[in-house]
Design a protein that fits this description.
Order of helices and strands: EHEHEEHHH
Number of helices: 5
Structural class: alpha/beta
Number of strands: 4
Mean pLDDT: 87
Protein backbone atom coordinates (compact mmCIF):
# COMPACT_ATOMS: atom_id res chain seq x y z
CA UNK A 1 0.00 0.00 0.00
CA UNK A 2 1.22 3.42 -0.83
CA UNK A 3 0.67 6.00 1.88
CA UNK A 4 2.02 9.44 1.06
CA UNK A 5 2.37 11.94 3.91
CA UNK A 6 2.86 15.67 3.60
CA UNK A 7 3.36 17.59 6.84
CA UNK A 8 2.49 21.25 6.34
CA UNK A 9 1.31 21.70 9.93
CA UNK A 10 4.45 23.13 11.47
CA UNK A 11 4.17 20.45 14.18
CA UNK A 12 6.88 17.79 14.34
CA UNK A 13 5.24 14.37 14.33
CA UNK A 14 6.36 10.80 13.71
CA UNK A 15 5.24 10.63 10.07
CA UNK A 16 6.34 7.00 9.50
CA UNK A 17 4.22 5.96 12.48
CA UNK A 18 1.16 7.71 11.06
CA UNK A 19 1.73 5.98 7.72
CA UNK A 20 2.10 2.67 9.58
CA UNK A 21 -1.26 3.22 11.32
CA UNK A 22 -2.91 3.90 7.95
CA UNK A 23 -1.32 0.82 6.35
CA UNK A 24 -2.27 -1.33 9.33
CA UNK A 25 -5.92 -0.21 9.13
CA UNK A 26 -6.08 -0.72 5.36
CA UNK A 27 -4.54 -4.17 5.71
CA UNK A 28 -6.89 -5.10 8.57
CA UNK A 29 -9.84 -4.06 6.41
CA UNK A 30 -8.66 -6.19 3.50
CA UNK A 31 -7.95 -3.30 1.15
CA UNK A 32 -5.89 -4.15 -1.93
CA UNK A 33 -2.12 -3.84 -1.53
CA UNK A 34 -2.24 -1.67 -4.67
CA UNK A 35 -4.35 1.01 -2.97
CA UNK A 36 -2.99 4.53 -2.58
CA UNK A 37 -3.74 7.01 0.17
CA UNK A 38 -2.64 10.55 0.87
CA UNK A 39 -2.37 12.03 4.38
CA UNK A 40 -1.94 15.77 4.76
CA UNK A 41 -1.17 17.45 8.09
CA UNK A 42 -2.19 21.12 8.12
CA UNK A 43 -2.27 24.22 10.31
CA UNK A 44 -5.40 25.41 12.13
CA UNK A 45 -6.30 28.10 9.57
CA UNK A 46 -6.06 25.68 6.64
CA UNK A 47 -8.25 23.15 8.44
CA UNK A 48 -10.76 25.87 9.35
CA UNK A 49 -10.97 26.86 5.68
CA UNK A 50 -11.50 23.24 4.57
CA UNK A 51 -14.06 22.64 7.31
CA UNK A 52 -16.08 25.69 6.30
CA UNK A 53 -15.77 25.09 2.56
CA UNK A 54 -16.67 21.39 2.55
CA UNK A 55 -18.79 20.91 5.68
CA UNK A 56 -20.19 24.43 6.02
CA UNK A 57 -19.12 24.42 9.66
CA UNK A 58 -17.10 27.20 11.29
CA UNK A 59 -13.63 26.74 12.76
CA UNK A 60 -11.09 23.96 12.50
CA UNK A 61 -11.63 20.29 13.23
CA UNK A 62 -9.36 17.32 13.90
CA UNK A 63 -9.73 15.17 10.78
CA UNK A 64 -11.45 15.30 7.42
CA UNK A 65 -11.61 12.56 4.81
CA UNK A 66 -12.01 13.15 1.10
CA UNK A 67 -12.80 9.92 -0.74
CA UNK A 68 -12.18 9.83 -4.47
CA UNK A 69 -15.43 10.47 -6.31
CA UNK A 70 -14.69 8.01 -9.09
CA UNK A 71 -14.36 5.09 -6.70
CA UNK A 72 -17.20 2.77 -7.70
CA UNK A 73 -18.90 1.47 -4.57
CA UNK A 74 -19.74 -1.75 -6.41
CA UNK A 75 -15.98 -2.27 -6.87
CA UNK A 76 -14.71 -1.53 -3.39
CA UNK A 77 -10.94 -1.21 -3.04
CA UNK A 78 -10.94 -4.29 -0.84
CA UNK A 79 -12.32 -6.49 -3.64
CA UNK A 80 -9.85 -9.14 -4.81
CA UNK A 81 -9.81 -8.23 -8.51
CA UNK A 82 -9.41 -4.48 -8.16
CA UNK A 83 -6.27 -2.84 -9.57
CA UNK A 84 -4.60 0.27 -8.17
CA UNK A 85 -7.12 2.56 -6.52
CA UNK A 86 -6.60 6.03 -5.14
CA UNK A 87 -8.71 5.90 -2.00
CA UNK A 88 -8.56 9.61 -1.31
CA UNK A 89 -7.09 12.07 1.14
CA UNK A 90 -7.09 12.29 4.90
CA UNK A 91 -6.41 15.73 6.36
CA UNK A 92 -5.23 15.93 9.98
CA UNK A 93 -4.74 19.01 12.16
CA UNK A 94 -2.16 18.26 14.88
CA UNK A 95 -2.64 21.64 16.57
CA UNK A 96 -6.35 20.88 17.03
CA UNK A 97 -5.68 17.24 17.99
CA UNK A 98 -3.17 18.23 20.67
CA UNK A 99 -5.91 19.44 23.05
CA UNK A 100 -8.03 16.35 22.37
CA UNK A 101 -5.04 14.16 23.21
CA UNK A 102 -4.49 16.02 26.47
CA UNK A 103 -8.17 15.64 27.42
CA UNK A 104 -8.11 11.94 26.55
CA UNK A 105 -4.95 11.42 28.60
CA UNK A 106 -2.76 10.13 25.82
CA UNK A 107 -0.04 11.43 23.51
CA UNK A 108 -0.50 13.52 20.40
CA UNK A 109 0.84 10.61 18.35
CA UNK A 110 -1.79 8.26 19.78
CA UNK A 111 -4.46 10.83 18.91
CA UNK A 112 -3.10 11.12 15.37
CA UNK A 113 -3.18 7.31 15.05
CA UNK A 114 -6.83 7.36 16.14
CA UNK A 115 -7.67 10.15 13.68
CA UNK A 116 -5.83 8.37 10.87
CA UNK A 117 -7.78 5.16 11.41
CA UNK A 118 -10.97 7.22 11.69
CA UNK A 119 -10.17 8.86 8.36
CA UNK A 120 -9.43 5.51 6.70
CA UNK A 121 -12.81 4.19 7.85
CA UNK A 122 -14.56 7.26 6.40
CA UNK A 123 -12.74 6.77 3.08
CA UNK A 124 -14.07 3.21 2.97
CA UNK A 125 -17.66 4.31 3.52
CA UNK A 126 -18.08 4.04 7.28
CA UNK A 127 -19.97 6.83 9.01
CA UNK A 128 -21.27 7.76 12.44
CA UNK A 129 -24.31 9.88 11.67
CA UNK A 130 -26.76 7.31 13.06
CA UNK A 131 -26.39 5.47 16.39
CA UNK A 132 -26.04 2.02 14.77
CA UNK A 133 -23.44 3.34 12.31
CA UNK A 134 -21.56 5.02 15.14
CA UNK A 135 -21.45 1.80 17.17
CA UNK A 136 -20.18 -0.17 14.18
CA UNK A 137 -17.55 2.40 13.18
CA UNK A 138 -16.25 3.15 16.65
CA UNK A 139 -16.12 -0.54 17.63
CA UNK A 140 -14.10 -1.30 14.51
CA UNK A 141 -11.89 1.76 15.09
CA UNK A 142 -11.21 0.73 18.68
CA UNK A 143 -10.34 -2.84 17.66
CA UNK A 144 -7.97 -1.71 14.89
CA UNK A 145 -6.23 0.73 17.25
CA UNK A 146 -5.85 -1.91 19.97
CA UNK A 147 -4.41 -4.40 17.48
CA UNK A 148 -2.08 -1.72 16.08
CA UNK A 149 -0.88 -0.80 19.55
CA UNK A 150 -0.27 -4.46 20.39
CA UNK A 151 1.62 -5.02 17.11
CA UNK A 152 3.81 -1.97 17.78
CA UNK A 153 4.55 -3.14 21.33
CA UNK A 154 5.49 -6.60 20.03
CA UNK A 155 7.78 -5.08 17.37
CA UNK A 156 9.50 -2.94 20.04
CA UNK A 157 9.90 -6.01 22.26
CA UNK A 158 11.45 -8.02 19.39
CA UNK A 159 13.82 -5.15 18.50
CA UNK A 160 14.93 -4.84 22.13
CA UNK A 161 15.51 -8.60 22.28
CA UNK A 162 17.59 -8.47 19.08
CA UNK A 163 19.71 -5.65 20.51
CA UNK A 164 20.25 -7.59 23.74
CA UNK A 165 21.09 -10.79 21.82
CA UNK A 166 23.59 -8.88 19.68
CA UNK A 167 25.15 -7.31 22.78
CA UNK A 168 25.54 -10.66 24.54
CA UNK A 169 26.87 -12.45 21.46
CA UNK A 170 29.29 -9.60 20.86
CA UNK A 171 30.49 -9.74 24.48
CA UNK A 172 31.56 -13.35 24.04
CA UNK A 173 32.94 -12.77 20.52
CA UNK A 174 30.32 -14.78 18.63
CA UNK A 175 29.22 -12.08 16.24
CA UNK A 176 30.57 -9.04 14.46
CA UNK A 177 29.10 -5.66 15.23
CA UNK A 178 26.62 -4.56 12.55
CA UNK A 179 28.12 -2.50 9.79
CA UNK A 180 31.66 -3.83 10.25
CA UNK A 181 33.19 -5.56 7.26
CA UNK A 182 36.36 -7.59 6.85
CA UNK A 183 39.10 -6.13 4.65
CA UNK A 184 39.57 -7.68 1.22
CA UNK A 185 42.34 -10.24 0.94
CA UNK A 186 45.50 -8.65 -0.28
CA UNK A 187 44.54 -5.16 0.87
CA UNK A 188 47.01 -3.29 2.94
CA UNK A 189 45.34 -2.17 5.95
Amino acid sequence: MSVEIANESGVAVDEPSIAAAARFALDRLGVSKLAELSVLLVELDVMADLHERWMELPGPTDVMAFPMDELDSARRPDAADVGPALLGDIVLCPAFAREQARQAGHSLLEELHLLTVHGVLHLLGYDHAEPAEEREMFTLQKRILADFSQARAEARRRAAQRREDDRLLGAVGLNEPRGRTEPDEGSSG
